[in-house]
Amino acid sequence: MINMKMNDNLTKRPLTPGEKIYWTLEQKGMIHFVTVAEIETSVPPGKEAWQMALQTVQAKHAALNYSIKGETSETVHFQEHRSKPIPLEIRPMPSDGLWDHEAEKELAKPFDLNRAPLLRVTILERTGGCAVLLTVNHSIGDGLSAAFLLREIVATVASQTTLSTVRVLGEVSGQYPAIPERTRFDNAPPILVQHAELGSELTSHLIARAGEEKTTVHSVFTAAVAMAINKLSPKWHSEQLGVLHPVSYRQLMAKGESFELLAGMQICHYPLDRRHSFWALVEIVRKSLENVRSPETLGREMQSLEHLFSSNPDTHFLYQTLDTLTRHQVLISNLGLVPADTDYGGLKLKAIYGPMVLPDHQHVQSFGITTLNGSLTITLTSRWPIDGLLEAVKEILQQV
């Protein structure tokens, strides 16, 4: 049995410059994301098994116990709490068998930064399996953190052999009062989430073609998105497409599978015209992302962020500055190949989707890409979705 009666308010630490970015953006909107694990099982785990697994992983990762305190960029800090369990809800899967609408609800539900923890879990049960929705405030972790944590939760649930001493769900779950959705857009349209899976055959083909062309699957996918938008949105034909690429520094910093924010941003602009062939555009994308994970690039990014926050500017100035610097039309968050077993005894981890990120700029199309078990999954999140965009991207990839 895991003892939840530990001393509260154990430690506190200042936010890093990268974490302060998301804290600043949170002042005007909602900076959290959803990642989903699809699981197959003949015998669904009980609520006690899920709760015990969450207690186990929460005890291992400090960030899963954080709230955020402080009013300025100089004083803002994480406060660690060891008596606040991860909120957990278990519900039936919607009748259509899709978790998309539940992900939309999670994206529309803000976090109270003053309350730990800054993540929550929803499980949607169906016959033969379930979907686990992990919602995380971006200040405490990135997409890979979420994918690794989902895998860890599934493995922990599968390893349970006895549940007789675990407290019931209602006794340990943290359920906080609802707070209104925050958006800086007047009369903002509802959030729409879509998802698709390419399958192992097409995924293998894309990896092979990228290798033949001496490029990356990420570059191929980005070019496919640009081509699809060019086809579906004529108003953008004479413009460039601004794409935000989250860049993981996890390997460079030797952080392994630690749950924390270890990603930077790279915004690149690509031509939206019909003069470039598909593979020419792929090469433009590849070159734009050369050396983004080098120590020199990381050093420059950290130096510029430290300079931005060094004078303790007021939050409004920071927000306006970051809002301008991060403007984009497309976000492509690619978690790459997530290493994981497919079979955890009675549980099979079928797929991971996401991260689903709610964009902070108008008309942004936000893609999440993950490859697990040899199959690439795609999510598309937007308040202003381009009609048919996900299908058009898939069609282009099928023709590569």
From TrEMBL:
Pfam families: Condensation, PapA_C
Keywords: Acyltransferase, Transferase
Keyword Acyltransferase: yes
Residue span(s) of domain Condensation: 40-156
Stretches assigned to the Phthiocerol/phthiodiolone dimycocerosyl transferase C-terminal domain: 193-379
Superkingdom of the organism of origin: Bacteria
Name of the featured protein: Phthiocerol/phthiodiolone dimycocerosyl transferase
Alphabetized Gene3D superfamilies for the sequence: Chloramphenicol acetyltransferase-like domain (3.30.559.10), Nonribosomal peptide synthetase, condensation domain (3.30.559.30)
Organism of this sequence: Mucilaginibacter pallidiroseus
